[in-house]
Amino acid sequence: MLGFRVILGSLGAPFCLAFARLVAVAKVLAVLESECCGFKSLVKANKMMAERQQTTLIMALLSNMGLGLVVCLYEFKMSKGISFWEGSILVSMYSMVLVFDTVTTAVFYYACKP
């Protein structure tokens, strides 16, 4: 039974990574284009990402590494005890990584826009 879970996890991780990037590009499409929303934005994002798959994967890798770094730092500080100002800094670091991810996704959209 453990083997099935390992196989499922190893197959599910790349799918989740690709789908998360697809949803991020679709959100930017839905905001920037008035006629594109819902499933239509997912389809358009998929077509847009198919042309530049390597760039999309690098963007996803960088944003996930940034988020992972902040989460690891948070868990480390929680195990040692955290003060108020450290918590505020961690929240601002996490927010900055999310803003950076959104900005890079918008730049990707404008670079791929037909």
Terminal Cα span: 48 Å
Succession of helices and strands = HHHH
- What is the tally of helical segments? 4
The largest β sheet comes out as: none
Low-confidence stretches: none
Number of structural domains: 1
As a percent range, the share of strand residues is: under 5%
Task: Give average pLDDT, whole number.
Answer: 79
The counted number of beta strands is: 0
Quick recap:
89% of the residues lie in helices and 0% in strands. The protein has 114 residues and is mainly alpha-helical. Helix 1 crosses helix 2, helix 1 (2-32) packs across helix 3 (53-80) and helix 1 packs across helix 4 (84-112).
Question: What this model shows, in words?
Answer:
The protein has 114 residues and is mostly helical. The protein has one domain. Helices cover 89% and strands 0% of the residues. The chain has 4 helices and no strands. α1 crosses α2, α1 crosses α3 and α1 packs across α4. It is globular, with a radius of gyration of 17 Å.
